[in-house]
Specification:
heterodimer, A: alpha+beta, Thrombin, subunit H, 6-stranded antiparallel beta barrel, 6-stranded antiparallel β-barrel, 6 helices, globular, B: 169 residues, mainly alpha
Chain lengths: 317, 169
């Protein structure tokens, strides 16, 4: 018995070391097992997701019952603002199209995406990641950006046939080159396993204010430019980024099929499978109602259309 | 009670650990520690069988689902299984008031060890607050989990203390 225990301790130590060096056999085996467990996880996640939605509904009901009139006023105001945004967006889209025509700019390829659900949530001292029920069969590759309605959530780091692992923004290994504020100051958003990201490597002479919006710069060659990440918080010198997306309670997410030259480094299979890193479309038609084509890349935030936090930064300026 | 009940209940807990509950960032360490606590409790309750290899395998499954380094939770479960089954290592009558301090000491060491191992793994000091929060919660939840498992095992909690815990005689 003692010999068996010793063997098990030794095996654990060996596995830890192999994990640290990223042994490919171990990674492949892990992908296979996670793929196999996906249907069970999907089934097991249903009660948890329903329970979470129930709690959210109860919270909403309590809030509405407490202050129904104020809630209606707030929603009416929000609706009015959204209508204004819609109008201004249409106006800007027309302007951009006109200017592109004048400049004879090359047409940007339409961005394809697939939407799925978070089926497992993996958080601990080592990782902040999530499993989504989209895999290579749906066209997902390693290195793709993952977003939800609020903004960037993370990027795919493992892709099995039917599931993919998403490294969340706040994971210790997450490093994202970003642009900050309306002037587009270059910086790096670093995850540290906490709720907020560190803002580091800010370019010299950049003026940053709390409330400035932070979005991807695309200079890493992996993520597309202009994906909203969050807003700047904190004091000068110790600026942080509070993500727009609620990373603790992710539900539905979308994977953007944005292939860049760097994808050959993050996922060599993408090249082997499809004969080129820049072939953005998945090989096979993704499952029903998961893909919508023709959506354009979210543009960098326009200063005039400021959110409340951005308004605060504007006021400070 | 079947012989597979301990392993099966821990398996359910491992799957529950991976499910997206939407817990706050500070509470991320609690669910995996519940798995470790269940391993400890099943090993401490006499008349139940949870082999150390099964405990390590379940920990390994937790590693696989979590996306973290393989072997970390397997090691934690293995340590808990070893300490939980030590008969009479502290005192002969191992009722709740004895088990609880043992668990408190064990989980504190595991928390410290986990923090150190994670820091070593990334070659930087990682945030200690979620681990401390998880450890304190795991200590407070120990009686609930222990008596919950006793209830699962026998359908009732009101056994005499002599028959409940290993090495009670």
């Amino acid at each position: 018995m003692e010999l068996l225990s010793f063997a098990l301790y030794f095996l654990c130590a060996v596995l830890l070391v192999l994990s640290r060096i990223g042994h490919s056999t171990l990674t492949d085996a892990r992908d296979e097992i996670v793929d196999l467990s996906a249907p069970f996880l999907e089934l097991a996640s249903v009660p948890a997701v329903e329970a979470r939605r129930f709690v959210d509904r109860v919270r909403l009901n309590v809030r509405v019952h407490r202050n129904a009139v104020d809630e209606i006023d707030r929603l009416t105001k929000e609706n009015e603002e959204l209508k204004q945004w819609q109008w201004r967006t249409q106006l800007l889209e027309r302007k951009v199209a006109h200017l592109r025509k004048l400049l004879h700019a090359a047409e940007e390829p339409a961005l394809v995406y697939a939407s799925g659900r978070v089926i497992a949530d993996a958080r601990g001292p080592f990782v902040r990641s999530a499993l989504v029920n989209l895999g290579r069969n749906d066209g997902v590759r390693i290195g793709y950006a993952v977003i939800n309605g609020d903004g960037l959530v993370g990027r795919t780091v493992e892709a099995g046939d039917s599931v993919a692992r998403v490294l969340l923004l706040n994971d210790l290994n997450s490093r994202i080159p970003v642009l900050v504020g309306p002037n587009g100051a270059r910086a790096m958003a670093l995850g540290d396993n906490s709720a907020e990201l560190q803002l580091d490597f800010v370019e010299d002479g950049a003026t940053i204010y709390a409330g400035d919006e932070v979005y991807t710069s695309g200079s890493d060659g992996v993520l597309p430019r202009g994906l909203r990440i969050g807003a700047v918080t904190g004091e000068p010198g110790t600026y942080k980024v509070r993500p727009f997306a609620e990373l603790n309670s992710l539900d539905s997410v979308s994977v953007l099929f944005f292939d860049a030259p760097a994808i050959t480094q993050t996922d060599p299979d993408a090249v082997a499978d499809r004969g080129g890193a820049l072939s953005a479309l998945p090989q096979r038609e993704p499952r029903e109602d998961r893909t919508a084509s023709g959506t354009s890349l979210p543009l960098p935030p326009v200063a005039a259309m400021s959110s409340p936090v951005a308004g605060q930064a504007q006021a400070e300026r | 009670m079947t012989a597979l009940l301990p392993a099966f209940s821990v398996l359910i807990a491992v799957i529950a650990t991976a499910v997206p509950w939407g817990l706050p960032a500070d509470a991320t360490f609690i669910l995996p520690l519940l798995v470790v606590m269940m391993v400890f409790c099943w090993r401490a309750i006499p008349g139940t069988e949870l082999h150390p290899a099964a405990a390590a395998a379940l920990g390994l499954l937790a590693d696989l689902l979590s996306g973290g380094p393989l072997g970390f939770w397997a090691l934690m479960c293995l340590i808990a299984a070893t300490v939980g089954a030590k008969p009479g290592s502290f005192r002969e009558r191992r009722d709740l008031w004895i088990q609880w301090p043992i668990w408190t000491a064990l989980v504190s060491v595991l928390g410290l060890f986990g923090w150190f191992l994670a820091s070593l793994y990334y070659l930087r000091w990682i945030d200690w607050w979620p681990i401390v929060f998880g450890v304190v919660t795991a200590i407070l939840l120990f009686p609930v989990v222990l008596y919950g498992l006793l209830w699962v095992r026998s359908g009732q909690i009101g056994h005499s203390r002599r028959t409940i815990f290993r090495s009670a005689s």
